[in-house]
Amino acid sequence: MINKKELEKQIGIKINDISHFELAFIHRSYLNESDDDIKESNERLEFLGDAVLQFISSAYLYNKYRDYPEGQLTNLRSKIVNTESLAEETVRLGLQKHLLVSKGEKNTVEESKHMQADTFEAVLGAIYLDSGIKVCIKYLHKNLFYKIEKIVNSGSLKDHKSLYQEYSQEHFNTTPTYKVLSEEGPDHDKKFVMGLYINDELISKGTGGSKRSAQQDAAQKALELVSQNTK
Description:
Elements: H1 4-11, H2 18-24, H3 43-64, H4 70-81, H5 83-93, H6 113-131, H7 133-143, H8 148-154, H9 160-171, E1 177-184, E2 191-198, E3 201-208, H10 211-229
Antiparallel strand pairs: 1-2, 2-3
Helix pairs in contact: 2-6, 3-4, 3-6, 3-7, 5-6, 6-7, 9-10
């Protein structure tokens, strides 16, 4: 059982129904070894929390950085809500200490950033069910969005093409190539479709009014694939 007062102190929120939060800390591995009559893990809450996080962070950045184009907003959001960032907050708040896991997973909780990030999202899902969207917004302002100004001021924001090139060089030891897949329309209103390739394998397609913008779109889609595959 979770100590309600201790958790309230950690997250800075008054808890109405502790059962939401008890579920948030049940890792799927725990179901196989638990003697308790527990049939559900925190995966559904993680799913809900992820949706809440994406919505609130998108709305926050949209309203705060009105001169940023869509691509730059996406880039900034990815730096805030990625696995590394969420895991950092989980550890800072000490939430990972409540996580119920199998005996074989106990030694990995303090090291697994994916497990820690999933816990952050599950807790956010619990907060939404327990207190609603307004409390979630306040929680994220205090426990995540404080990082944004530092990221913006650091000058670390790069375009999608540069970011995916860094990823490709690190993980595939090669630089992505781009090929024109189709081109249509008059000169004053061209539409290009570009393919992004890694070692002759088509990774994503992008569209745009110029080859450069289509390449950026393809790189953005490739980065989104990376994000989905690492969650």
